[in-house]
Write a structure and sequence with these properties.
Blueprint: E1 4-9, E2 12-20, E3 26-28, H1 33-37, E4 57-60, E5 65-68, E6 71-72, H2 73-79, H3 82-91, H4 97-108, H5 117-122, H6 130-144, H7 155-181, H8 194-203, H9 214-226, H10 234-243, H11 249-261, H12 268-281, H13 286-294, H14 315-331, H15 336-350, H16 352-356, H17 363-373, H18 381-402
Antiparallel strand pairs: 1-2, 2-3, 4-5, 5-6
The structure holds D-malate (MLT).
Length: 428
């Protein structure tokens, strides 16, 4: 018998169907709540509210489970590649070798961007944060590919937009960095793999025979896999609600890039390193800063600890921590900031204050450390998150469109003035 939820308002009973997900999670379907009861729900930050049904990513915050299309993040991070995971997220199944080869080659054929993009880039001063440049260049694709504005675009046309998005994101990202450091941009070297191509565009200097360290490229590929999707997080929800108005994939994802930029979301990995550098500059006394973090009268809080969804540990953090250790050892990186991070981690994992509050190191804590070890500049950390999250945004935008979901339009509880008569200023 189908489960139902009962709501009693002013003595009147209302029943609503309960929907059950593939993994047994329950949702009360309140699609008719307002019509039947005259009331709406109130859920600041939508922490208790499901916005959709999705077959893309499953996570269990209590058990620390994260799966893309049913495959565990542990398996994918250890055995797959970012492009294979991107294909899985977007099209729902792991590709055959021929499908992956075609996908990779289609992407290679679109890594160049129109030369006029440089005119847009030149308008950004070197003080521009790379995330703002990235969001702008990504959205500018609507100007170069106006056919993408067609809300009823063919599946072939949508595929082309998907390939262009994945192909050009690294180019836009590297160019945003070059704009910041005042160096000439590099064109994509399609003889390289996805991550190596990006790293060469980022770091190669004119007339330099730049070679990518495979340790760095492999570590970056793993990091991108770990960031590829995370169900209905802030930026993905932004992509979905913008996409629900039938806005183009480029403008929807540009909105997601801007949402990710915030320090409470993708910007957290940058905040972690800034926090570690602040502690190092202050003399590196981690006990002092741990005490500050515990002091309710002190505004300082540890960045990179705890998570809105994971209650015990972030499965991605466990994988990244191991990758960080490996990379630092292979690269022979001796970073005093890292030593501070390891001390903070040690305390957070054994101190009852942090354990009781579920403040354990999350994905942002370790990703900032490994990006730094890879030579990625701090204000490019969130850009790296965006490159990784792109296939997730694409898959969620595509799912919303294929499921013909309605435009997103939440309601509110009004707390403003009651009706009042307008009085002309001369008579007030
Ligand atoms: C993410 O991966 O998007 C972050 O962990 C934030 C979240 O899921 O809320």
């Amino acid at each position: 018998m189908a489960k139902t939820a009962e709501l009693i308002i002013d003595g009147k009973s209302y029943k609503f169907p309960i929907v059950e997900g593939t993994e047994g999670e329950l949702g009360i379907d309140i699609s008719n709540l307002l019509e039947e009861t005259g009331a709406v729900t109130l859920d600041f930050g939508y922490k208790n509210t499901g916005a959709t049904k999705s077959a893309i990513t499953f996570l269990d915050g209590d058990k620390g489970i994260l799966r893309y299309r049913g495959y565990s993040i542990e398996d994918l991070a250890a055995k797959s590649s970012f492009l294979e995971v991107s294909y899985l997220l977007i099209f729902g199944e792991l590709p055959t070798q021929d499908q992956l080869d075609k996908f990779s080659n289609d992407i290679k054929n679109h890594t160049m961007v129109h030369e006029d993009i440089k005119k847009i880039l030149d308008g950004f001063p070197s003080t521009s944060h790379p995330m703002g440049v990235l969001a702008s260049l990504f959205c500018a694709q609507t100007a170069f590919y106006p056919e993408s504005l067609d809300p009823n675009r063919s599946s072939e046309g949508v595929y082309l937009s998907i390939v262009r998005s994945l192909a050009k994101m690294p180019t836009f990202a590297a160019w945003a960095y070059k704009n910041e450091v005042g160096h000439p941009v590099n064109y994509p070297d399609n003889s390289l793999d996805y991550c190596s191509r990006f790293l060469k565009m980022m770091f190669a200097l004119p007339a330099e025979n730049y070679s990518v360290d495979p340790v760095v490229a492999n570590a970056l590929d793993k990091l991108l896999i770990l960031h590829a999707d995370h169900e209905q997080n802030c930026s993905t929800s932004t992509v979905r609600i913008v996409g629900s108005s039938k806005a183009s994939i480029y403008s929807s994802i540009s909105a997601g890039i801007n949402a990710l930029w915030g320090p409470l979301h993708g910007g957290a990995n940058q905040e972690v390193i800034l926090m570690l550098e602040q502690i190092k500059k202050d003399g590196g006394d981690t006990d002092k800063w741990i005490a500050k973090a515990k002091d309710k009268n002190d505004p300082f809080r540890l960045m990179g600890f705890g998570h809105r969804v994971y209650k015990n540990f972030d499965p991605r953090a466990k994988i990244i921590k191991k990758a960080a250790d490996d990379v630092l050892e292979k690269l022979g990186v001796n970073d005093p900031t890292l030593e501070i991070a390891m001390k903070l981690e040690e305390v957070a994992l054994r101190d009852p204050y942090f354990i009781e509050r579920k403040l354990y190191p999350n994905v942002d804590f370790y990703s900032g450390i490994i990006y730094r070890a890879l030579g990625i500049p701090v204000d490019m950390f969130t850009v790296m998150f965006a490159i990784g999250r792109l296939p997730g945004w694409i898959s969620q935008w595509k799912e919303l469109r294929e499921n013909k979901e309605p435009i997103g339009r939440p309601r509110q509880i009004y707390t403003g003035q009651n009706h009042r008569q307008y009085i002309a200023i001369a008579k007030r």
